[in-house]
Q: What sequence folds into this?
């Protein structure tokens, strides 16, 4: 494990989005292209394709949307600079992440959570923000094997979305692989992870992409 990742894991509490994505990248997990910016000059020098999203990137702001810290579908540099200026006034002491927008796929969620009875568990569901609303999720105790991952998907009411519902094509094998990778992270960091939330994960015909990620480390 790289030294910078080991350093991040010494933190107590929430990590910023770029820090979580750095950890995911170190495990070869597919994430969005992004750059972290602090100044207008940083913004002007980004090397990303539009449209992009601008998000506040902070250890102290876990739910960015709730505080008005997310702007999606920014179409060009002029608009990005304008939104950045507004965000900089609203969050003067924070960094920001510019995320290259990706095509929408079938939305899924994968998470890790410490259960008081069973210890670290892995959760998955299909449907993004509606997953927890409809309680369409499946849990297993970490670590899991491939059979467990398949079983978790079979238990989901929304699994039809992964089976080609209305000719929507998804790569279920890649999704299974991702679930197993998150289980591996959970196993390796079982004493450090309090919560991890990948939501949404977009699943495509031949790949997936983790769009947003949160992680809280315990003491």
A:
């Amino acid at each position: 494990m790289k030294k910078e990742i080991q350093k991040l894991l010494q933190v107590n509490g929430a990590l910023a989005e770029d820090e979580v994505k750095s950890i995911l990248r170190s495990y070869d997990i597919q994430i969005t292209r992004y750059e972290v910016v602090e100044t207008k000059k940083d913004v002007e020098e980004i090397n990303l394709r539009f449209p992009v999203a601008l998000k506040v990137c902070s250890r102290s702001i876990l739910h960015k949307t709730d505080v008005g810290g997310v702007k999606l579908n920014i179409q060009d540099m002029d608009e990005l600079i304008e939104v950045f200026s507004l965000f900089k006034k609203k969050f003067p002491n924070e960094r920001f992440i510019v995320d290259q927008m990706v095509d929408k796929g079938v939305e899924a969620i994968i998470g890790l959570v410490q259960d008081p009875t069973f210890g670290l568990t892995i959760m998955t569901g299909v449907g993004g923000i509606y997953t927890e609303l409809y309680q369409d999720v499946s849990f297993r105790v970490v670590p899991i094997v491939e059979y467990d991952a398949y079983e978790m998907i079979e238990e989901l009411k929304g699994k039809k979305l992964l089976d080609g519902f209305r000719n929507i094509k998804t790569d279920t094998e890649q999704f299974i692989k991702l679930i197993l990778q998150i289980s591996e992270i959970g196993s390796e960091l079982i004493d450090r992870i309090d919560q991890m939330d990948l939501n949404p994960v977009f699943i495509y015909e031949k790949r997936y992409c983790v769009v947003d990620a949160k992680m809280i480390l315990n003491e």
